Amino acid sequence: MKPTGALPSLSMVPLSLSAWLERLESQHPVEIELGLDRVSAVADKLGLRSSPTTTLTVAGTNGKGTVVTFLSAALVHSGKRVGRYTSPHLNRFNERVCIDDVEVRDSELVAAFEAIEYASATISLTYFEVATLAALWIFRERDVDVQVLEVGLGGRLDAVNIIDADLTVVTSIGLDHTDWLGDTRELIAIEKAGVARLGQPCIVADPDPPDSLLSTLGAVGAKIFLMNREWRVVGGEMQTESGQRYQLSGNTGLRPVNLGAAIQALELSGLVTVDQSLVDHLASVSLTGRLSRMQMEHYELVLDVAHNVESVSQLAQFLRENPVSGKTVAVFGVMGDKPIRDMLSVCETAFDEWNLIDLCHVPRAMPTERLAEFFEPMGPVTNQGPFPDLWQSLMTRVSAGDRIVVFGSFFSVGEATTYLAALQQDEGHN
């Protein structure tokens, strides 16, 4: 019999969600600590690994959140009860845990945190481990049919991997989090492949996968469905492993290959009937911060969470292929552990002006005074400071036909969306 309801809290005073999050951020001595022993022990105490729920897990460097969004949207559209877990969030922690594409309530997260605290006792868990357990706990309590899980970091030793997936997707393999995963695509691919399981399908959406990815998947005994071999996307059309053909269209910000990977996964899962109408539905799905384009009165605003060389290169390519009549203005903030010089080298020519976001409240962020040093060979930075100050300055200088691009990290886009939403709300009240 599965446990139900929140277990007694060790806290003397009930905590709000914000208080819980502050507590979780300060509890564990390090932000990242890979390994499954701690989180597995707590999950077993909570009975989270014995659930019969179908699990789809998505790993990779770029495109994970997009594929998860497509999978969840298709399953919900087809009448399934779906739990969706993603990370990081842009504005609210609740974004990470959704049921039927609706964010869960604060009270559900608090109940999950209380249950986890009681079960963990003396076991120290990271912020991400607690978040993952909370998602799984809520999905079990809400009795979802399918849970779609996004890997946070790597795969093999990521907290999400405590659950045996019935199907996995591995998106692109690029250089990111090299301090943790290795400094080559070959090494990183081994970590990503760790989410696959014996006898279960694994859809590979990298057009040029490292040999180590395929050899590791083969050693695991996964059923490999390789892009450009079992399935392919050419232009605006996809052909699945079964020979079915579908026309792809819609939001250009969500790469066709990611849509193709989701369609192939859905076909193999047997959970839904895949047809052109479902594909058309998915083509209309958007995801904030994935080449999100908004046409304002006099200018275009683009929000993109591109935060590594591969994703920044894709953003730059889009900007060059879709020029505007005015200037293309960068609003950029980035974490200090990223290959900043390489990121700038692939996008330098795509921008006419640079503004640097001060993310001093984020410990991992590169301070703007240090970040500005990377631009000395490129020319002066126009402005630097908190996003509201940058935005107010930009609004005095923006001209018809200009394009403003906010990118570099989830935190950068989060700052922008939070501020602009508040600004819009204030304008609506006036």
Structure notes:
The N terminus is likely disordered. Helix 2 runs parallel beside helix 5, helix 3 crosses helix 10 and helix 7 packs parallel to helix 8. The chain has two domains: 267 residues, UDP-N-acetylmuramoyl-L-alanine:D-glutamate ligase, CATH 3.40.1190.10; 138 residues, Protein-Tyrosine Phosphatase, Chain A (Alpha-Beta Complex). Helices cover 38% and strands 16% of the residues. The longest helix has 20 residues. The radius of gyration is 22 Å and the shape is globular. It contains 15 helices and 17 strands. The strands form three sheets. An eight-stranded mixed sheet has the order 4-3-2-5-1-6-7-8, sandwiched between helices. A six-stranded mixed sheet has the order 12-13-17-14-15-16. Strands 9-10-11 form a three-stranded antiparallel sheet. By secondary structure, the chain is of the alpha/beta class.
What is this structure's SSE topology?
Blueprint: H1 17-27, H2 37-46, E1 54-59, H3 64-77, E2 82-85, E3 97-99, E4 102-103, H4 106-120, H5 127-141, E5 146-150, E6 167-170, H6 178-181, H7 185-193, E7 201-204, H8 211-220, E8 223-226, E9 232-234, E10 237-239, E11 245-247, H9 256-269, H10 276-283, E12 292-295, E13 299-303, H11 309-321, E14 328-332, H12 340-345, E15 353-357, H13 368-371, E16 383-385, H14 387-397, E17 402-407, H15 410-429
Helix pairs in contact: 2-4, 2-5, 3-9, 3-10, 4-5, 7-8
Which features does this protein show?
single chain; about 425 residues; alpha/beta; UDP-N-acetylmuramoyl-L-alanine:D-glutamate ligase; Protein-Tyrosine Phosphatase, Chain A; 2 domains; eight-stranded mixed β-sheet; six-stranded mixed β-sheet; 15 helices; 17 strands; about 15% strand; globular; disordered N terminus
